[in-house]
Every structure is written in structure tokens, then in C-alpha cells.
């Protein structure tokens, strides 16, 4: 797969929680951090996602916000 996005985080799927229309897919990264993606249930099925599979979180954002206490 070739893609222009540079923010690619490779990891392993550790959880898939399907809701009525949207699924939350959690991907564990090598350093221990977990990234969650919200995608359609249809996308989960079409990609054949499952627990323990290798997956890449691809981040595309127009804004990055920073907060402090």
C-alpha cells in the first residue's frame, strides 16, 4: 500500500468494539501507547479486521491542539 500521509503508526489490534454504526478499533504501538480509531462497522468487515492483527494507524489532521493545566 502506498499512501501520502507521513504519520503512520504500526501496531497490533487489541480491541474492536462495534456500536450501532461505528466501531472503535484500538491499536497497541510498540512503546506501549494505544491509538484508537473510529471507523464504520462496514470498514471493519471489508478490511477483515480482527484481534491480534498487524495494522497501521494513519493520522491525517488539519489542526493540532495543545492544552495545559
Automatic annotation (TrEMBL):
It holds the Pfam family TOBE. GO terms for biological process: molybdate ion transport. Keywords: Molybdenum. Residues 2-68 form the Mop domain. InterPro entries: Mo/tungstate-bd_C_term_dom, Mop_domain, Transp-assoc_OB_typ1. This is Molybdopterin-binding protein.
Amino acid at each position: 500500500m502506498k499512501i501520502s500521509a507521513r504519520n503512520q503508526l504500526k501496531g497490533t489490534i487489541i480491541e474492536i468494539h462495534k456500536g450501532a454504526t461505528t466501531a472503535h478499533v484500538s491499536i497497541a504501538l510498540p512503546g506501549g501507547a494505544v491509538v484508537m480509531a473510529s471507523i464504520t462497522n462496514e470498514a471493519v468487515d471489508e478490511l477483515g479486521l480482527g484481534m491480534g492483527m498487524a495494522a497501521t494507524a494513519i493520522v491525517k489532521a488539519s489542526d493540532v491542539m495543545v492544552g495545559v493545566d
